[in-house]
Amino acid sequence: MAAAKKVLTKGQVVSDFAEKFEISKKTAASMVEEFAALAIAETKKKGTFVLPGIGKSVLVKRKARIGRNPQTGKEIKIPAKTVVKIRPAKAFKEAIVPAK
User: Fold this and answer.
1) Would you state the torsion angle of the CA atoms of residues 82, 34, 24, 21, taken in this order, to the nearest 10 degrees?
2) Are 14 and 25 contacting, i.e. CB atoms less than 8 angstroms apart?
3) What are the tens digits of pLDDT across the range 2-59?
4) Rounded to the nearest 5 degrees, what angle is found at the Cα of 88, between the Cα atoms of 87 and 90?
5) Tens of pLDDT along 55-82?
6) Which has the closest alpha carbon to 55: 95, 18, 21?
7) Which residues on adjacent β-strands are paired with residue 61?
8) Residue 19 half-sphere exposure, CB side, CA atoms within 13 Å?
9) How would you classify residue 10: left for phi > 0, otherwise alpha for psi between -120 and 50, otherwise beta?
């Protein structure tokens, strides 16, 4: 099995932004944190938030349903709940995995 590729840490993202926009790391960190806070607040309040060029976060209400315990095979009730999904933008998806 191949070694897993390491993902960028928040610190690395902040350093990259600071370098590209010629601002301090502290300012870049504030911008990243504020963007995340805005995405959370808007998704909570309005049920959706568009991440320009990346995708859209949306609240989705799941209905209650019947599932199975994989160990025993016994049926269980799964209650209704609200979950957050991030739907990728078409341009984002095609830039990563080109359409055939």
Assistant:
1) 80
2) yes
3) 557 889 999 999 999 999 999 999 999 999 999 999 999 999 999 999 999 999 999 9
4) 125
5) 999 999 999 999 999 999 999 999 999 9
6) 95
7) 82
8) 6
9) alpha
**Of 67, 45, 48, 68, nearest in space to 56 by CA:** 48
Burial label for 49, CB within 10 Å (0-12, 13-18, 19+), is buried
Residues recorded for the chain: 100
pTM: 0.75
Q: What gap in Å lies between CA 46 and CA 24, rounded to an integer?
A: 33
Cβ atoms 72, 60 nearer than 8 A? no
- CB-based contact 32:14 (threshold 8 Å): yes
